[in-house]
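Hi P.,

Sorry for the delay on this. The queue was packed all week, but I finally got your sequence through. Input first:
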Amino acid sequence: MLKSNTARATRRRALPEAAGASVRPPPVRGDARDQTAANAGVMSKERALRRTVSDDHPISLIQGNSLPGLVQRELERMILAGDLPAGSQVREIEVASMLGVSRGPVREAFRALEESGLVRLEKNRGVFVRRIGIDEADHIFELRAVLYEFAGRRAAQRATPGQASELRALVAQMERSVADGDVDGYHGANLAFHDRIVELAGNPKLTGLYRRLVKELHLHRRAALGQAGILPVSIREHRAIVDHIAAHRAAAAGRALYDHAMASKERVHHAGIGADPAPRARKAVR
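Then the structure:
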């Protein structure tokens, strides 16, 4: 069952059917020179608009995404935020109604979400948010640790002082979140920290694979980070990682990231996260 504030926010940004429609400038009266000047003014305003709107602004989203892509992005956000919990059913007709789109883009979004590992399509039953069992989670944690070690080595070889400062700023953001008791804020900064290290490795294939693994483990990690005493330990690990990267100690950075990833796996086991809960009725999106 979705929270009412999430539903209201979603309706406020309901996706337009004609996502690719262009904005036509108003008609301008006058001679050809006036018309040319007016058109130039419109183009200048459009360029200025493109410079000022953020990546998550509705205009930017419409310019850079197809309608199925926008539906996929919103459903992915809802899954990763926990609004659509693992095991819950997601109904095509209800999603279409909620987002103000036809069922075709929703169907395409479901297929893309299945490919990304976030949902499963069951014949004659419907679409369900995936539940990651403990054995599968272990396999993902182990693969992620190997990717982290490679990324840490490459990042330490390539990172500039400015990029190391970016990582330190994210650790500082995590520290502020710990002080404020803000687990969500810590979680967001933690994801950004590791994603940035993987980006610094300079391997797009690695980045794509890593992001898929992180999405699959999202709910596990989120629960683990809420444990008392875990956040300060994680902060110390992050500081050590940045120190190695900033000093270009490639082997040490890789080992620190590998150990950090495997420690995450052990924390999840210690919390008992990932064990299959008792069977219960699945709730559909409303």
